[in-house]
Write a structure and sequence with these properties.
Layout: E1 13-18, E2 36-38, E3 42-49, E4 59-67, E5 70-75, H1 83-94, E6 100-107, E7 113-129, E8 141-147, E9 150-153
Antiparallel strand pairs: 1-6, 2-5, 3-4, 5-8, 6-7, 7-8, 7-9
InterPro entries: CHP02241 (IPR011747), Phage_T4_Gp19 (IPR010667)
Protein name: Phage tail protein
Organism: Chitinophaga nivalis
């Protein structure tokens, strides 16, 4: 018989940034609140090899795996109210930052982790603020695009 949590829902999750204890950033309660997380992807990079005398096809061989950017979206917070926003602001203004690890937890109905991904050595690549539009009554969304080395399933 299947477990009661299968299939899991994708709307109940938590993101934790593991800022170093000696750094200036300390994660706040605001920093686990995200609307969406995407980019937990591996891609296989390939190369093609043409065989002499065989013109009907090319051999495609795997070269290395690569991770896509991690994209986090949430309602906007002032940098003073969010360690993540402050971390990005420091990175883009002063070009000084330390890569951080982060944890993405998929949670069950009792808020316990069903699955956990650890993202290693993330750093801010892009920080976007959604458009302001007087015709729409939407929440202002900030988007963090983070480059990272790899992720592991814990």
């Amino acid at each position: 018989m299947a477990n009661s949590y299968y299939p899991p829902v994708g709307f109940h999750f938590k993101v934790e940034f593991l800022f170093s204890k000696t750094g200036t950033q300390q994660q706040t309660d605001n920093d686990i609140l995200f609307q969406s997380v995407s980019g937990l992807n591996y891609q296989m990079q390939t190369d093609t090899l043409k065989e002499g005398g065989e013109n009907r096809f090319e051999h495609v061989i795997p070269v290395r795996s690569k991770c896509t950017d991690l994209v986090l979206k949430r309602g906007i917070f002032r940098p003073a109210d969010s360690a993540i926003s402050g971390w990005c602001l420091e990175a883009f203004r002063e070009f000084t930052f330390s890569p951080v690890d982060l944890i993405v937890n998929l949670l069950n109905e009792t808020h316990q982790p069903l699955m956990t991904w650890k993202v290693h050595r993330a750093w801010p690549k892009n920080w976007k603020i959604a458009d302001f539009n007087a015709d729409k009554g939407e929440v202002v969304i900030e988007t963090f695009e983070l480059n990272y080395n790899y992720f592991t399933l814990e």
